[in-house]
User: What shape does this take?
Amino acid sequence: MTKQMEYEIDYLFNELTGGKADFLNEVTLHQALKAANIHMDRQEVKKIVDTYDQNGDGRVDKFEFWSFMLEIMKKELIEQQDSIIEITNMFHDADINKDGVL
Ligand SMILES: [Ca+2]
Assistant: This one.
């Protein structure tokens, strides 16, 4: 977890809530997405809120938003590492005489 990531999550949360609330719900998320030109119907927005909302109060508070974002970022990090391993393997495959040079 870097300071940059912390900043980005905080920034995104404030963007979505308009800095006016410490939680998101179906209505505020729907408005935020619309403002960002992302058009989802209420059913889709509800699905997102349900995914974020861990204690089932119909709201996504900052803590829930954080843990969701961390999961996404971790997944992305793992995918990045996977592609590094893939590239390394490709290098080893192409390095037929195994002298470490192509
Ligand atoms: Ca909640």
